[in-house]
Amino acid sequence: xxxxxxxxxxxxxKPSAIREIFKSLGQxxxxxxxxxNPAPESFPAExxxxxxxxxxxxxxxxxxxxxxxxxxxxxxxxxxxxxRERFAxxxxxxxxLIVSGGQQGIELxxxxxxxxxxxxxxxxxxxxxxxNAFRSLGLNIAGVPMEDDGMNIEALERExxxxxxxxxxxxxxxxxxxxxxxxxxxxxxxxxxxxxRYGAIIIEDNxxxxxxxxxxxxxxxxxxxxxxxxxxxxxxxxxxSPGMRVGFVCAPEQIAQKIVVAKQVEDVHTxxxxxxxxxxFMTEFDIDGHIENIRKLYKHxxxxxxxxxxxxxxxxxxxxxxxxxxFVWCTLPERLDVNKFVKDAAAEKVFVVPGDAFRCDLSKTIxxxxxxxxxxxxEEIERGIEILGQIAKNKK
Amino acid sequence: xxxxxxxxxxxxxKPSAIREIFKSLGQxxxxxxxxxNPAPESFPAExxxxxxxxxxxxxxxxxxxxxxxxxxxxxxxxxxxxxRERFAxxxxxxxxLIVSGGQQGIELxxxxxxxxxxxxxxxxxxxxxxxNAFRSLGLNIAGVPMEDDGMNIEALERExxxxxxxxxxxxxxxxxxxxxxxxxxxxxxxxxxxxxRYGAIIIEDNxxxxxxxxxxxxxxxxxxxxxxxxxxxxxxxxxxSPGMRVGFVCAPEQIAQKIVVAKQVEDVHTxxxxxxxxxxFMTEFDIDGHIENIRKLYKHxxxxxxxxxxxxxxxxxxxxxxxxxxFVWCTLPERLDVNKFVKDAAAEKVFVVPGDAFRCDLSKTIxxxxxxxxxxxxEEIERGIEILGQIAKNKK
Lengths: 396, 396
Prior knowledge:
Two copies of one chain form a homodimer.
Chain A: H1 8-12, H2 18-21, E1 31-32, H3 45-58, H4 60-64, H5 73-87, E2 94-99, H6 102-113, E3 119-124, H7 128-136, E4 140-147, E5 150-151, H8 153-162, E6 166-171, H9 185-198, E7 201-205, E8 230-235, E9 247-252, H10 253-267, H11 272-283, H12 287-312, E10 318-319, E11 327-331, H13 338-347, E12 350-351, E13 353-354, E14 368-372, H14 378-392
Parallel strand pairs in A: 1-12, 3-4, 3-6, 6-7, 7-8
Antiparallel strand pairs in A: 2-9, 4-5, 8-9, 10-11, 11-14, 13-14
């Protein structure tokens, strides 16, 4: 049999080691705090079913034939309008494109901006999907420590100064994954200003932006973008359905044109049927009412989890208090080893993601876990945190 | 405003120049021989509508939630079974994955096997989408002339010998795009043997394999693959619907595992709803009867086009006689300039793709055009060829 010589960038990229720990996930009685999934009870399946029947009866050829790479124009216009009206995001000179999930927007932007050996600066910790996309392109990742109000600005400037090949700053300023933290307006301005000064592009990843359930809205970084240096990535995954793989990018036109060329050779276009569904969702459905229901649901579930953590976890544990999104980030005391903690929890069928999964710097260990509250039921949240508390107190 | 520094590989990749010529495509009265689209009348819209309603009523969470990168297991199994039973393709040690169209299978395979600066050997001319995917990865493309029975084997060996960085041979052996030619079994064996000897991987792109309407089946190259060096890319685009973006790859397991990692960072997974639809199409629908109807339709349309060409085009034109697929390749006499011919045709609202769109070597001109017979109506085929004939005879 053949021996394979894989590309250098892919040879180094390993599938996640957490897979091994998560083998028994899905067994009866298991509690998944490990997902990044929206609540299944939030999917508007009946609406989608009606919309699907309507589309296939009245526009079957449009829905099933090849389509254009840029995306379905009425959907692009509806997204552009919502971004503008709801988030003051997107200006003349920007272009909205439809992509196959926010993930593709991130990957394509890095592909068009960066050559192998270039550097992306990211929050440490950060979203594994984005970090691995950068790695798959042969890029270096420089981590900037995440603080309670966003990334450390001095560290960001140090990285920009010392890395002439730093082409991109990747950030999730709103309801950060994995930290659940929202970057303040002051820090958003500082990140933007540094990007401008050092000639970097910002990827603002905002999959959770619609899901605020407490506190006040903070302007997007893209809304500050007078120079055309911010690529904004959004998605229907957390407000409609992730399985349909429809996201969008709002980018300066010149960058958007390059993204179109890069997207064409990856998947030609995003499946057009669900672009039509997403368009109906935005124009014929009570999208705001629907999102309001999701917010209420997540506020309730997040509250349940935070209350349970306060009552069950020892005093030397710390955790974030998210104002939206899907995740709580829980830092372990030094006396505990996170990887043992995660394994012990899995043995009790409670699944959490260890901090190491979100590392920029693969040589460090992050003594924290990410907890998701959107997927588990109320009962699972309470029972799962109770079990984590017992493990934390060495009672299991 | 910012000045952008794009990645080298993307800076060089331009959107197709044909776009300009095709601006008026879609105007009333225009005749498109330029598409690669399946016949819209072949879409089983009613079946899809019933299947969609059933899925959304009975499995809404499965259809709308995140799914796994490898693809929906029952669909993978159904595809593997059909490949094995119908084409003797796929062995122990191979793995079937679901991808977002055949295009993604090609791009991902190149990504996992090749570093920037490596070489892909392709038929000259070849499918633009694949060639641009290779270019977007910073790969060099070496073209091997296409002959009436497949690529020139001596030229292929010369390229393999002179290119130690030739990692992939990309071929469309069945109903070639753009040539409509089917590579003989003898040449398939020769290509496989050379790949084996020189340590290259073969990408066998077979989107049209189900669409034979005359002549005898020729075994796939993948069916000859005892060493695990062939990645076979297939698609539902030409037998079900291209807009849904569901394709598949049958690859040696080690390569397949790398493709999964690479796919995860591009789009997480292929939209799961249409994986469920494709599965129902394979298991609950008369797929063979449906494909037989498409074959009959294309045999008829292709015959119409070939007859019209025989009666309308001057004696110094030459063209291929496809046994399946979507395309006829028409070589112009030296007295005519292909780019002027294409422009003159567009001025008469008949759209054909100039040979240059399919070049490996961007410095050469290919004095031929690709004609598609699946998209236009019978009347359009006859009228369009008549107009091309008039232009060829300098009567327009």
